Amino acid sequence: MTSQSRLGPRLAAALDARWEHLLVRVCGRRGWRPTPVVFNSYARSAGVEGGGWARVLCRVLMLPRSAEGGSHARDGLSRGWRRYFTAPVAGVEVIVRIGADGPHERVHRVRTAAGGYLDLRLEADLPLGQHDVVVEAPGGAMARGVVHVVDPDVARGLVSDIDDTAMITLLPKPLRAFWNTFVMQEVERRPVPGMAKFLRSQAADTGLMVYLSTGAWNYAPVIEAFLKRHHFPPGALLMTDWGPSAQRFFRSGTEHKRTQLRRLTHEFPEIRWRLVGDDGQHDPETYSSFARAYPDRVETVAIRTLTPVEHLVTGAPQTREEAEGRVQVPGSVRVLRGGDGNALLVEDLGL
């Protein structure tokens, strides 16, 4: 991309940052203050290859005092549109306590990036298991999240898509996407039948569970509440930002998934991955490309196959032959297909 072609995205990103700055000032006059929202993530214990670390995922927003402690983010009851009208706080220093209130606590002072985001790998020395991460913003507002320290002796990991894999959304159709995102209450969302059971079976002998979505971070707390309510296995949540960047007007969801998969591969070189998605969008091609690039790092690709009606609704009709041709992986990689989680579980068991 030439410098001239990048001018538009850079201008859009600058205007977006200016708009967010004005929102922060207006919210400050109303008595709101910077408030962190911490998302579940993962960590690695110290070993022979070097020191331990934790990936801290957080966003700092201007919120009223009544919404502190995560209630605004995790009530799971408000209409979806409210979550996209936020005032993120960029460039503010926050205190991050990894392993908070425990004997292995490490304290870091860091600054939020554009959009109020924190996505940092910080030094930590945590034993295996789950540990609290507390983020405190200026003014005293704080929030708590969890990091799961990966057991290096468990050499399998699980990555799952969310939209139309765990949760029925049919997002590609514009009208349905608008309704699901901005109108529908979170408690009305429906899980894909049997998918929680299938993912629990796949996660039982894995060291790391990751939900990888092209959805916006604004909606991450809703996703966490949905997964918990429907008994999906707990895991880290990796989402993206829909706003403009210096390179493009809208960020690429497909590139987000590819980047995160590569990062997980480099962070956990001993893990072989089970990848779960659906054929409504680009999961078959994304997972196939990853499996061909890292054939010894992928164990299974499991694809939920949408029905012909669902494909028609999403605007991506395809024949059975076309669907099967979209998954092209090395022979060492097992491929599972099924219309829902129950079918995938039966396929996995060879019944």
From TrEMBL:
MF GO annotations: phosphatidate phosphatase activity
**Phosphatidate phosphatase APP1 catalytic domain segment(s):** 157-304
Q: Spell out the InterPro entries in the cross-references.
A: APP1_cat, Mg2+_PAP
User: What name is this protein filed under?
Assistant: Uncharacterized protein DUF2183
Q: What is the lineage of its organism?
A: Bacteria, Bacillati, Actinomycetota, Actinomycetes, Micrococcales
Q: Pfam families this protein is in?
A: APP1_cat
